[in-house]
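FW: tagging you since you asked about this chain on Friday. Here's the raw sequence from the shared folder, copied in full. Didn't touch anything.
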Amino acid sequence: MGVKGFVEGGIASIIAGCSTHPLDLIKVRMQLQGENPSVLALNGHGSASVALPRHAGPVSVGVKIFQTEGVAALFSGVSATVLRQTLYSTTRMGLYEIFREKWADPNTGNLSLTKKIGSGLLAGGIGAAVGNPADVAMVRMQADGRLPVAERRNYKGVGDAITRMVKQEGVTSLWRGSSLTVNRAMIVTASQLASYDQIKETILSKGVMKDGLGTHVTASFAAGFVASVASNPVDVIKTRVMNMKVVEGVEPPYKGAIDCAVKTVKAEGPMALYKGFIPTISRQGPFTVVLFVTLEQVRKLLKDF
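HL: got it, structure written out here
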């Protein structure tokens, strides 16, 4: 069961991550709005184009990326997404299954809500620590297009990003913002996996629907909403800390997560912590649906192994 859980979770996570990557990229760009007076959009020749408003919506951000950077830009950092899902999500999904099997009631096979949340917190934290380098690379690759041409990192891929970070900023840069990544992953995994299991069990026990596609879609979309509400503030701070440029001899924009949160709220108000919420739920909803629907199908395919 142990290895099987990792394989099933990994396959479902990679499919879900790649299929919703453009929405995740738009979310990252929106979360970075407000760090400067405006987010400057640039055309392919490096000259300034029309600047996005300080609080541009997801449609405006998506259209501007398409117009100034091309359709391929919507998949910037997708190689890092694949690596991130391979490391982070495979680990958290596999560990959650192990904890669920280990702590389940021997009579019913079910897990109490408290134990589900505990399993999610533990699995998410370990998975995030493993996948943090890919997470940093993904955020930087997704955010690169918003920088002036002269300041872009222009990573060729996730391998190039990680190699250059180690050479230029040291190996510790791969775990920049790791405390935030771990906290966010614990919140997301606990809220997402625990709520999916709990809602699915409730639907089946109440006889609302049978165990099929309808149940899986309903439970997974509800789980995606819960995860989005719970994790968005940590996600905003994580994105900003990971994306900041650190130059030797120059004080970094943020000293850490708390400093970033304080400066963000002071400069932009408390609702800044929910920047990118619409694309977050727009991405988290489909991501969670694809994740669990795919997971249920993969489980059926591999049930005899």
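FW: The two ends are 9 Å apart (CA to CA).
HL: agreed, and Confidence is low (pLDDT under 50) at residues 37-51.
FW: great, closing this out.
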